Amino acid sequence: MTQNLPHEPIDNGLLSDKEPGPWEELNPGSTSPLLLLCDHANNRVPKSLGHLGLELDALGKHVAYDIGCEKLTRLLADKFQAAALLAHYSRLVIDLNRHPGDGSSIPVISDNIDIPGNTNLTMEQIRAREEALFWPYHNQIERMLDKIVSRGQTPILCAIHSFTPVFRGYQRPWHIGVLWDRDQRLSTPLLESLQAIPHICVGDNEPYHARNPVGYTMDIHGERNGYPHILLEVRQDLIGHDEGVAEWAHVIYSHLKSVISQIELI
Segment Disordered: which positions (predicted)? Predict the structure, then answer.
C-alpha cells in the first residue's frame, strides 16, 4: 500500500485563481502500471513571487527547469499510453525532488546564479510554497499509485530528468544516465539494453551518483513503497529540439518497454 503524506494543500495566496494548479495529469484513464513523473517540467513562477528577482533569461536556463523533459514525458506517455504527472512550477520556487528542509529545496544560489527571491525566507513563506506546490504534487502521485494498486497491479515508476552537456568545465560524455539506489529490478536490465546500442554512451548512476537516496520522488514513492522505479537523465542538447526529443522518446520507449515486459514484480 502507498503511504499517506501528511499535508494537504491550503489556500495561502501563493497562487491566484487565474494561474495553473501545481501539476498536470496526463492519461488519467490509463490502465498501464507505468507512471511517468516529471518533477522539473516547467520554469513558471507564481505571479505573487515576481520573477524571484531574476532576469528572464535566467528562467530559460537549466537552473529553472529540466530542458526538453516536458515534451519527452508527453511523448512517452503517449507511446506507453501511461499516466504521467508534470510539475507546473519552477524548481527555483521549490524543488519537488528534494526533501523539505534540505538546503537545496529552495536554493538561494544555483549554478553560481543568485536567487534574490529565495533569500531570508521566513518559515511561513517556506511553508506557503510547500503547501501550495510541493505537497499537492506528491499527494497526487500517491493517489495515482493507489489507483494502479486498486486495479491489482504493481506500480512501476519512471522519473524523467535532463542534464547539462558541460558542468564546471567538464564535457559530460553520457547521452543518457540510468540512476538507481537499492532497487535494481529496472536499472540492471535497462542499462544492459541501452549499453548494447552502438555509439551511445550510457551512464550508470551518471551524471549524478544516485545511491542513498535517488532524490525525494523515487525515494518516497518508489523505494519506501517497494515499487520498481528508475530515474532517467537525458543530456539537454539531445532533447532540446523536436527531432531530438522524438528520437530519444523512441529509444527510451523501445528499451524500457522490453525491460518492463520481462521483470518480475516481487
Answer: 1-27
User: Distance of CA 233 to CAs 15, 124, 226, 236, Å?
Assistant: 30, 33, 22, 9
CATH number of 232's domain = 3.40.630.40
**Residues ≥6 apart with Cβ < 8 Å to 80:** 32, 34, 36, 253, 257
The answer to whether residue 153 is domain-embedded is yes
Most distant CA pair in the chain: distance in Å? 52
Which amino acid, one-letter code, is at 97? Answer: N
Report the predicted TM-score, pTM, of the whole model to 2 decimal places.
Answer: 0.94
42-68: pLDDT as tens digits: 999 999 999 999 999 999 999 999 999
User: Which pLDDT value is given to residue 189?
Assistant: 97
> Residue 172 region, left (φ>0) first, then alpha (ψ -120 to 50), else beta?
beta
**Number of domain units in the chain:** 1
At a CB cut-off of 8 Å and minimum separation 6, what does 11 contact? none
CA distances to 92, 143, 258 from 2, rounded to whole Å, are 28, 9, 26
What burial class does residue 193 get, using C-beta atoms within 10 Å of its C-beta: 0-12 exposed, 13-18 middle, 19+ buried?
middle
pLDDT at 213: 66
